[in-house]
């Protein structure tokens, strides 16, 4: 065998060894990964719900500003109820869709990470932990705990955050040349120039 052929054969052997080491996981390891993904289904459900609620919350902030600034006070409550119904309809349609897609995408998105980062023994330990009754109970409490913290956080920070939000809205409206929210809410109108003021404005234009 020539020197070049020897080097080529050695390189190919090394490549095959490396490919075997980095190749597909064993069937036993893949089965453990699938078990982890099944046990993590509640997390995927929370992820889907959180994603949908995030988009609703962002839109809700915009709608809240419009209700205060554009909708007459006597119509706000009825309009808010109608909008809440629309938000609920959106959530009822989108959450199951996101949950289904998250479940289907998890094996190709999360599976390879588990296969690469965890050994077979570590996966066995993880499965045992996820199957523990106390952990499953704790995991099921995630939504309740999140809501409890969110409610208290909103209540505790409302007096501090709302003035800052109002100031931000007024600043943005001013920069965009829009009517200030406070003026819009009170129904105030810009004064119309008349008399000497009107004449001065006309002269300035000339």
Describe the structure.
By secondary structure, the protein is mainly α. It has a domain of 69 residues. 86% of the residues lie in helices and 0% in strands. It contains ten helices and no strands. The longest helix has 37 residues. The chain is elongated.
Main attributes of the structure:
206 residues, mainly alpha, 10 helices, 0% strand, disordered N terminus, disordered C terminus
Task: Please outline the helices and strands.
Blueprint (H helix, E strand, L loop, with lengths): L2 H20 L4 H13 L1 H30 L2 H37 L1 H7 L2 H12 L1 H8 L1 H34 L5 H6 L8 H11 L1
Helix pairs in contact: 2-6, 3-4
Number of helices: 10
Our measurement of the CA-to-CA distance between the termini, rounded to an integer number of angstroms, reads: 97 Å
Average of per-residue pLDDT values? 76
The percentage of residues in β strands lies in under 5%
Structural class: mainly alpha
Enumerate the spans where pLDDT stays under 50 for 5 or more consecutive residues.
1-22, 181-206
Helix-strand pattern, N to C? HHHHHHHHHH
| Percentage of residues in helical conformation | over 70%
**Major β-sheet profile:** none
Tally the beta strands: 0
Rg:
30 Å
In short:
This protein is mainly α and 206 residues long. The protein contains ten helices and no strands.
């Amino acid at each position: 065998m020539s020197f070049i052929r020897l080097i080529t054969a050695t390189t190919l052997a090394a490549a095959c060894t490396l490919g075997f080491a980095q190749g597909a996981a064993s069937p036993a390891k893949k089965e453990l990964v699938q078990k982890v993904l099944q046990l993590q289904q509640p997390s995927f459900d929370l992820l889907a719900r959180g994603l949908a609620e995030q988009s609703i919350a962002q839109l809700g902030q915009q709608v809240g500003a419009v209700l205060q600034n554009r909708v007459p006070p006597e119509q706000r409550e009825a309009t808010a109820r109608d909008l809440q119904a629309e938000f609920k309809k959106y959530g009822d349609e989108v959450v199951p869709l996101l949950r289904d897609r998250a479940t289907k995408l998890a094996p190709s998105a999360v599976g390879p990470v588990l296969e690469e980062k965890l050994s077979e023994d570590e996966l066995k330990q993880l499965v045992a932990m996820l199957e523990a009754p106390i952990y499953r109970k704790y995991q099921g409490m995630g939504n309740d705990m999140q809501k409890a913290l969110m409610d208290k956080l909103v209540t505790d920070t409302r007096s501090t955050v709302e003035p800052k939000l109002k100031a931000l809205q007024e600043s943005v409206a001013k920069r965009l040349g829009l009517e200030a929210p406070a003026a819009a809410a009170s129904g105030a109108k810009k004064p119309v120039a008349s008399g000497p003021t009107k004449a001065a404005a006309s002269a300035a234009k000339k």
